[in-house]
Amino acid sequence: MSAVLKSHPASERESALFEYRGVKYPDYLRHGNAQRFIEPLAKELCQGIGLDVGAGDWPLKGARPIDLKSGGDAMALPEGQWDYIFSSHCLEHLADPVAAIEHWRTRICQGGVLFLYLPHPDMTYWRPQNCRKHRHLFWPSDVAQMLWDLGFVDVIRSERDLAWSFSAVGWNGSAT
Prior knowledge:
This protein has a single domain, classed as Vaccinia Virus protein VP39 (Rossmann fold), CATH 3.40.50.150. The radius of gyration is 18 Å and the shape is globular. With 176 residues, the protein is an alpha/beta fold. Strands 4-3-5-6-8-7 form a 6-stranded mixed sheet. The protein is built from 4 helices and 8 strands, in the order αββαβββαβαββ. It has helices spanning 10-15, 39-45, 97-106, 140-149, and strands spanning 17-20, 23-26, 50-53, 64-66, 82-88, 108-119, 152-157, 165-172.
C-alpha cells in the first residue's frame, strides 16, 4: 500500500505564512505564544516551584507568572528562593538584560535553573531596528557566554528552531 500525499492549495499555504522583506515566515510568529514551542523541554528542566518572568497571556504551566505588561517589573521579583526562573521572549524588551539576569540569579536557589527562550536574530522581523519593542539582539553563543560570566554553570544552548527562537539554560552554581 502506498501513501498518498495531500497537496495543500496555495490559498491555505499563504494564509499560514506572512512575508516580511521578501522572506516568508509562519504566521503564528506575529501573534505571540512562542513558549508553546519550548514548553515540553522547559517542563523537563524547570522542576519544583518557579517563576515565569514576562509570562504575558501564556505563562508556563505550574510557574508563578510575572506579567510585565500589566505593571510587573523584571527587577522586582518576589522575595525568596525559587527552583527555577523561566522567561520566554522577554529579555530582549528589558532596558538592562545583564542586570536582570544578575537579579534573577539572586532569586534562584543553589542548583536551580534559569531557562531563557529568545528570538533568534536570523528572523529579520524581530531585529530591534524592525521591531521597536525589541531593544536587544542576542546570538545563542553570546547568551551562553553571558550566563557563564554571570555565575551559571553547566550552561547549554540551542541554535535556531522552527519558531525562529533559541534556548539558553544555566544552573545557579553557587550561593548568591
